Amino acid sequence: MRINKEGYRIICFSGVFCLLLWWLIYHLLVNHANISVMWLSAVLLLLFWFFIVAFFREPRRVRIHDADLVFAPCDGRVVVTEVVSEDEYLRTEMLQISIFMSITNVHMNWVPVGGDVEYFKYHPGRFLVAWHPKSSTENERTTTVVRMDSGHRVLFRQIAGLIARRIVSYMKPGEHVEQNSVAGFIKFGSRVDVLVPKDSELLVEIGDPVVGSQTPIARLKSHVE
Fold first, then answer.
1. What's the rounded Cα separation, in Å, for the pair 113 and 73?
2. CATH no., domain 69-219
3. 3-class secondary structure, 52
4. Can you tell me the distance from the alpha carbon of 85 to that of 93, in angstroms, rounded to the nearest whole number?
5. How far separated are the first and last CA of the chain, in Å rounded?
6. Could you give the CA distance from residue 21 to residue 23 in angstroms, rounded to a whole number?
7. What is the mean pLDDT of each run of 10 residues along the chain (225 residues)?
8. Which of 5, 3, 7, 2 is nearest to 188 (CA)?
9. Residues 6+ apart with CB under 8 A from 47
10. Domain boundaries, the chain
11. Which residues are known catalytic residues?
């Protein structure tokens, strides 16, 4: 299992924290008398540390290229499929597909389409639960717009949730990105919105599980009007 570079520091700090906590339990609370408490605490702390390590796992996945398709930018479950008014940059009605990542999902993010990064912005904000309707506009988030060679523009947002407190994005305005290349990472539970032209064909329904960079979620029209 590969570990994403965003987890190196947290994994090291959490490992040191677990060791120090076990040392305190062993020397201050157990006092060498209750061996069962000592071993139970060791097992629980080790499981906690393994959970932290597993959270930053980086799966090996085949990179798929299909200019007609928009792929899921993350692992998770579809929670929203609706037409919305996008008022930040594109200022038009778009079909929004939102994917919620539970704390057990892989939290890497992938670029749903290939093209040039036309717009990128980081927004500080609140930490509402990720499935809250206002999380798309009020939570800490990033907004990225990719202009494809076909002329289509696709927007996606990384959104922090109640637990997630750090969004990492590798997107840079003017940069060319390949479809399903790594876009960033969100630490500890969150959501990603993808906004596509509203005449796109929706390929998923609310409640569907999706796999980042592997599951197509929409099909674009072959030309831009």
1. 9
2. 2.70.70
3. helix
4. 4
5. 45
6. 5
7. 74 83 74 69 82 78 93 96 95 96 87 98 70 59 95 94 73 96 84 96 97 97 70
8. 7
9. none
10. 2-58, 69-219
11. 190
